[in-house]
Write a structure and sequence with these properties.
The protein has 180 residues and is an all-alpha fold. Helix content is 74%, strand content 0%. The chain has eleven helices and no strands. The N and C termini lie far apart (56 Å).
Length: 180
């Protein structure tokens, strides 16, 4: 892998094949399990040439797998790597909500509570039906001591869904009518 990595890095950025080398660097890092670095190189390939289908396909595959990748990276305490990966995925037009969710959660786990608010607010704005986003945003706000704002978020969540385990959790956090 190191030889391939070195060879791809030798392709001049003025070369008509530079975007292909960047994509191949991404796949090299992906095979090594460095998904954050892979996403950076896929994004660079796309920035270099927006019609590069391989890099677009590879970045979308990472985004599609984020529902499984995210929890695993959290379990392995790869918070910085997950934040970087999500930062590369979340700007995609068809990015799944998990890209913003795990961007927020990874920052929260890194104790960057204030930084976690931005992706979380964008998450509930773009995907109002993604209920975990409300709970995570409320949790971050509570951690920052902004309890009234957190309660507003929980009430917003309940306006989208008033039944189920997540609704019960929102009610518990609000201190109202929890079913026992």
């Amino acid at each position: 892998f190191l030889a391939a990595q070195h060879a791809y890095q030798q392709v001049a950025d003025t070369s008509t094949h530079h975007h292909l080398a960047l994509n191949n660097l991404g796949t090299t890092f992906q095979r090594l399990g460095r998904l954050d670095s892979a996403a950076v190189y896929y994004r660079r390939a796309i920035d270099k040439r927006s019609d590069t289908e391989d890099a677009l396909r590879n970045l979308r595959a990472l985004a599609t797998g984020l529902e499984e990748i995210g929890p695993r990276m959290l379990d392995e305490r790869q918070y910085v790597e997950l934040a970087l990966l999500c930062d590369q995925l979340s700007p995609m037009r068809d990015a799944p909500p998990e890209a913003l969710f795990f961007a927020a959660v990874s920052r929260f786990y890194l104790l960057k509570y204030e930084e976690s608010l931005g992706p979380n607010r964008e998450l509930i704005q773009r995907y109002p039906g993604f209920l975990l986003g409300y709970l995570q945003l409320g949790n971050a706000l509570e951690t920052l001591g902004r309890v009234e704002e957190a309660h507003t978020v929980y009430r917003q969540m309940l306006s989208h869904q008033s039944t189920g385990s997540m609704a019960e959790e929102a009610r518990r956090r609000l201190g109202i009518g929890v079913n026992r």
